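Q: Structure tokens for this one, please.
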Amino acid sequence: MKIFNTLTRKKEEFVPLTPGKVGIYVCGPTVYDYIHIGNARPMIVFDTLRRYFEYKGYEVNYVSNFTDVDDKIIKRAIEDNVESSVISERFIEECKKDMKALNVKPATTHPQATKEIPDMIEMVNTLIEKKHAYEKNGTVYFRTRSFDGYGKLSHKNIDDLESGHRKESHQLKVSGEDEKEDGLDFVLWKPKKEGEPSWKSPWGDGRPGWHLECSVMSKKYIGGTIDIHAGGEDLIFPHHENEIAQSEAANGTEFAKYWMHNGFLKIDNVKMSKSLGNFFTVRDICEKYDPQVVRFFMLSAQYRSPLNFSEEMIINAKTG
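A: Here is the predicted structure, written as tokens:
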């Protein structure tokens, strides 16, 4: 089987790290609301990939996380006047119902960020010891320039990224908000704010940065090097780029052999967004159409191509 590897931008023959076995990590949703149909595309695409591997006789370890601590979850919890864990637990259950409706098999493991905090602290400590990270007033930053391969997945040049940051970081320095050594450095651990969930750490009470979570969970449930890392193309930069940097800097091994990314989903040829009002949840769509029709529609285009969702396309999928 050949896979288009985002890292090399080439189709490559798939060779597993361990014969007969494959470890796949797919970035899952942030659970602050019902999942939208954009979230459903990677779920369906990579569920199909997994089923194909199983059909070919592979033993598949399929790991897909739930991001259950995040600014959006905290904002929703404040609006609803409940603890953020109430919001995340509720929408994890709702997400699982939607996945079941779309015939997406449960992952081998569905790790949750809040349950893996000790391992995240351990990885941050390792990065500080290896001089890849530093602490400033309770925030721990990753030294982006300390990692030679930065930009290899997104094919971005670090100096071009730097010039884009200069203007922005100058404004931050003027306001006294910027404590970074370099404008490109990103957050591994952030200090507690009033009313937010937090955990004890060597740098004070706080919570992990988003990029850190996937690095730690993929290592724990699959290994230091994984066969396939997958997700939507919107995650290539900065999320997946930062994952590579911190994982390879901490572990001293290649993070993932193959990278797979699905294309965007548009609604009537426009990017889906709440502000435009063209935002549909899986729950809404599945009330109008059979979930199997929705699944068939999602698989009707090549997975890396953009896919346009419209009433007409769904009716075509139903006929198909």
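A few notes: The radius of gyration is 20 Å. Residues 37-55 form the longest helix (19 residues).
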